[in-house]
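In the previous chapter we treated chains in isolation. Here, by contrast, the input contains two separate entities that must be folded as one system, with a combined length of 387 residues.
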Amino acid sequence: MHEFSIMQAALETAGQKTRDAGATQIHRLRLRVGALSGVVPEALRFAFEALKDKSLGAQAELEIETVPAVAFCTACAAEFAAADIQYECPRCHRPSGQLRQGREMELAALEIS
Amino acid sequence: MCQECGCSKPGPYQVGDRRVDSHTHTLADGSVITHAHDHGHDHHHEPGHAHPHRILNLKTGILSANDRAAEQNRGAFRALGLLVLNVLSSPGAGKTSLLTKTLNDLRGRCRAGVIVGDLATDNDATRLRTTGAPVVQIATGTLCHLEAGMVAEALKQLDLRALDLLIIENVGNLVCPAAFDLGEAARVVLHSVTEGEDKPLKYPPMFHSADIVLITKTDLAAAAAFDRELAWKNLRQASPRAKIFELSARTGEGVPAWCDHLLALQGAVAGATK
């Protein structure tokens, strides 16, 4: 259920940025969510529907961009797609602790007026 | 000014102490629209376009408020040379039992304090206080994780200068606390033998963030038909960075190695401030 806290934080930041830009309404809210962020897009949508009416995004459309997990193998000096929990380099089969992307939880963009 | 769409402009008005501007304009299809906006100045309209939508590219982290609070905590811990651990697991994996055992073993060698989070009750704090260590309980209400700001509040109730080690026992939950940095130096994730072998595969964000993994309740391994080899294989995949210990808080097996490791970490943190 931490998607509620996360959506709350996203709407607060979005509202602040919108007011800072001299606008009053959010039409579109775009989030970037990493495959390994621990956030479930469906739960985020549910939280958005429950929370949006109290924000400047009451009429907004929510877009969620999922960022695939990419790890880096130092031995091969190459990136590879980290499938779900598999952080093993497909070339040398060593496990990698370096995740290059996939943990994002970002407010990417707003469409406002 | 809306010169492009040729709309007329009524004067501004007040709602309470808020100044509101409004104006009327004609859309491409002939319909007339009047709308208000919050500022003392007008805004720009594209020809034939009712609301000039703007795109703000932000790319800001959603949890940035928590991350900032966590960095403040981390800075304070570093300045004090205090080792801080964030201890995480599912409910019932043995966090409180292990911490009680750890605090008892460290007595006289390291001054430790605890912050413990649960939705309700101070049962864990009561158990942990039997060790003589200072304990602050955070009751989160309905919140399923601790946040950095809650920890900052709890710190006010501890004499940090009188501590070498601060252990934060998070809410029992393998999902949500993974996303919230508290300012800790190391994340310790518990995996009890009674949970089977595939928790690391089922909860990758938590296990991937672990600096230390403790396989707990090893005294029950045979009764639980725990497949040790499979568990290690899964942990090596999901927690490639983590140092792994196996121990039992009940029998004490493996606890000295864990405590020695804590003392070594503490020494390194304290040494870095000197």
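Residues 65 and 92 of chain A are 31 Å apart (CA to CA). Helices of chain A lie at 2-20, 41-51. Compare these points with the single-chain example from earlier in the chapter.
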